[in-house]
Structure formats: C-alpha cells, structure tokens
C-alpha cells in the first residue's frame, strides 16, 4: 500500500500483491502451506509462493526493505501483542488477590521475618503486599510497551533506502505511534526484548515468592490454607499425600525465565553494529519467556480464588510465640520508659514466661510488674490480637481501617485501568 502511495509500484501491482499475500496467509492459517528445506527462511518461502500465486509481480514485494528491518518489525509486532496480553493477565491476577483480601478482611495471621513469627498482621494485608508487587510489574510492562511500539520498517539493511518511502504512512497502517530515528539502531536494537525479559523475570520472582508461601502454608506444619485438588496431585506411592504441584512448578519455572534473560543479555553484549546473524538466537528465549510467564499468570488467576483459608489455624498461630512482645515494649514507652530499656525489660519477661510455659498475656499483673513497676492492669488490653492489629495505623500499616481503605483504593484502580 505504501509503495503504491508513493508511486514506486502501481496500484494494480499493489492489489495483486495484497491478493496473493491473502491467499498465502489463509494457507498458513489452515496448515496448508508447503515448506521446502531448499528455501532459506520464511521470507524466501513467502516470496517463492507469491511468485507461484501472483506471477512476476511478486518480485517487487521486497522493494525498499530488507529481512533485517522486517525481522525487527515482526519481533516488535509479536511482542507488542504478547505484552498487552500479559498486562491483561496481571490485571486479572491483581483482581483475584484483591477479591481474596476483601473476602478475608478479618483473618489474622503471623507476620514473619527470617521465617520466624514476628508480629500479627491481617491476612488481607499480606495478600495486598503481592498486589503491590504485581501492580509494579504491570506498570513496568506498560512502560516497556511504549519502547516496543516503535516501527523500524524502512530502515532496510542498515543505512535506510534510496526509494521515496513514507514511513509515517506505514506506521499508521501498522498502528505504530512512532518510527525509529536511526536506521542502524533500528535493525540492531533488541533493548526492547531485553527489557521485556527483565520485567518478566522480576514478575516471575514475585510469582515464585507467592508460590513458596502457598507451598509452606499448605503443609501440615503450617496448615494455614488448603489448595484445591484441581491444582494439586497425589503421591505415586503414598496415598495420604497432596502435593502443591502447580505452585512448585511456577516456582521452578522462574529459573527458566531468568535464564532466558541471561541468554539474551549474553547474546547481545558484544555485537558490533548493525545486524549480525547471532541475533537469530533472540527468538527462542523470548518466545519461551513469553509463553512461560503467561502460563504462570493464567494458572494463578485460576488457582488463588479456589484456595481455602483456615482462619482458626492462622489466628491460633498468631496468638502464640510472643508476637505481642513489641506491643508490650511500646506500652512501656508510653509509660515513660526509653525504648531500649523497655526492649530489655520485655526480653527478660519473655525469658521468664518461657520458663513458666506461658505467653506474656497469660502472666499475672504481679508477675509482669517484676520487670517494670510502671505496668498497670490496662496492659492486657494492649496485648490482644485486635488491639495489636488496629494500633498499627501508620500509612501502609496493617490496621483494619488501613486495609479496608487499601482494598477500596485497589478496586478503584482496577476499575479505572
């Protein structure tokens, strides 16, 4: 169409070429296209078949282009479509996480540092942490899409072309908002693919962290959740087993995508300008990462809503292990004791409670006063789960009011995007 518009070929030539290419596309779509190993690549196949379908006019098809800029165009068009699909999947995943959080707003669980119980948090707050991660992933891919969506066609092999082409018109037909500014960069650039693989790797790492927690939480040692049978399998010899295979596979696939990123980075690290045949090796890691990431996102969109949350087990776990020690220290600070001194007092109280086989809130007022005379009977209200949760009202904290607002904000963001 563009070549006809600028007068390089006639309108009749353009019509014949378009008609012939339509026939070939239908053959490809229906698996009827015949491939011949004597032809070098897909471009030669198309041109050879077009010669059979449309006659000698097919020899004009390659005017003002090179395989170099055509390949660069094809990769960008492919990745543009795939990135949009990935962004949509991330939107779906964020939605199911928010829905899950909203459904379990009142569930309390232990928060962890160093895989040790630390402080109680709302389960919804924990889920929304992953919502934030995947929101950043979606934002990164949206920004990446802007750099993918640049049209290189018209750069030819590396130096541009002598024909009076209209690149802006071609970009309009192919729905590209911008055209590349430098012909050498256009055919040699794979930054957009490396950027996508970097974003994909980070997203997979977030999926892997989520998978690890689902695996741990579903063990009998934790018992926090139960994964639907549709996403688990039994053991080949142990009838009692229920293995969280989907979460484990997603966790394992992360190394694959990170490997795809390293492969492409290594491929491009020392290539001189402009195009080099090494660059044909960019396809396999890119296609693999795209397929893997989309599959892992899709399966999580289906799996997460079907997880059963064992709220009593979570709450019980948050009620033992001295998770209220920090709140006791904060209480002492409120009584005028410097934090470091309060920290030491509570440490001594924890050691004593361990010897007694009790939790801090199970000690009597007299026992607690042994460690700080300023302690009054109102301390016991400070050591309850609900009080500990709702006192953490700092922006981004786990207080119920904060989490309810965060869910509302997330739902609005999702509805607006």
Primary descriptors:
two-stranded antiparallel sheet; 61% helix; 417 residues; two-stranded parallel sheet; 6 strands; mainly alpha
Task: Give a nutshell description of this structure.
61% of the residues lie in helices and 5% in strands. The protein has helices at 2-5, 11-29, 42-54, 67-103, 123-148, 167-173, 183-188, 191-217, 245-268, 283-303, 311-319, 325-334, 339-356, 365-369, 379-382, 385-390, 400-416; strands spanning 108-113, 116-122, 150-151, 178-179, 225-226, 308-309. Helix 6 links the parallel strand 3 and strand 4 (178-179).
Describe what this molecule looks like in 3D:
By secondary structure, the protein is mainly alpha-helical. It has helices at 2-5, 11-29, 42-54, 67-103, 123-148, 167-173, 183-188, 191-217, 245-268, 283-303, 311-319, 325-334, 339-356, 365-369, 379-382, 385-390, 400-416, and strands at residues 108-113, 116-122, 150-151, 178-179, 225-226, 308-309. It contains 17 helices and six strands. The strands form three sheets. The chain has a two-stranded antiparallel ribbon. Strands 3-4 form a two-stranded parallel sheet. A two-stranded antiparallel ribbon has the order 5-6. Strand 1 (108-113) and strand 2 form a beta hairpin.
């Amino acid at each position: 169409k563009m070549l006809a518009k600028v007068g390089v070929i006639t309108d009749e030539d353009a019509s014949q070429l378009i008609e012939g290419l339509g026939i070939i596309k239908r053959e490809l779509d229906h698996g009827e296209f015949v491939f011949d190993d004597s032809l070098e690549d897909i471009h030669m196949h198309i041109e050879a078949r077009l010669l059979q379908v449309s006659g000698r006019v097919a020899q004009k098809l390659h005017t003002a282009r090179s395989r170099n800029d055509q390949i660069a165009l094809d990769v960008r068009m492919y990745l543009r479509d795939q990135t949009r699909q990935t962004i949509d999947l991330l939107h779906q995943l964020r939605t199911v996480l928010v829905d899950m959080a909203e459904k379990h707003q009142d569930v309390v669980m232990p928060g962890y540092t160093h895989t040790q119980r630390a402080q109680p948090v709302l389960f919804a707050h924990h889920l929304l942490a992953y919502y934030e991660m995947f929101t950043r992933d979606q934002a990164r891919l949206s920004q990446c899409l802007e750099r993918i969506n640049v049209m290189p066609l018209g750069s030819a092999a590396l130096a541009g072309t002598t024909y009076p082409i209209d690149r802006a018109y071609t970009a309009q037909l192919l729905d590209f908002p911008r055209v590349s500014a430098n012909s050498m960069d256009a055919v040699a650039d794979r930054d957009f693919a490396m950027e996508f693989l970097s974003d994909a790797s980070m997203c997979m790492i977030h999926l892997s962290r989520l998978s690890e927690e689902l695996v741990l939480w579903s063990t009998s040692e934790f018992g926090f959740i139960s994964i639907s049978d549709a996403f688990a399998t039994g053991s080949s010899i142990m009838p009692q087993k229920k293995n969280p295979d989907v979460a484990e596979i997603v966790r394992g696939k992360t190394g694959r995508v990170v490997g795809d990123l390293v492969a492409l980075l290594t491929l491009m690290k020392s290539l001189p300008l402009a195009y080099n045949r090494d660059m044909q090796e960019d396809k396999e890691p890119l296609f693999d990462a795209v397929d893997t990431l989309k599959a892992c996102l899709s399966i999580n969109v289906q799996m997460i809503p079907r997880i059963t949350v064992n709220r009593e087990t979570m709450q019980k776990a948050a009620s033992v292990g001295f998770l209220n020690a920090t709140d006791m220290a904060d209480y002492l600070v409120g009584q005028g004791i410097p934090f470091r001194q309060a920290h030491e007092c509570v440490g001594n109280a924890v050691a004593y409670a361990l010897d007694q086989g009790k939790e801090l809130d199970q000690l009597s007022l007299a026992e607690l006063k042994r460690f700080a005379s300023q302690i009054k009977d109102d301390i016991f209200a400070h050591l309850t789960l609900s009080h500990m949760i709702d006192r953490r009202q700092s922006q981004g904290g786990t207080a119920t009011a904060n989490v309810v607002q965060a869910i509302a904000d997330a739902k609005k963001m999702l509805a607006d995007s």
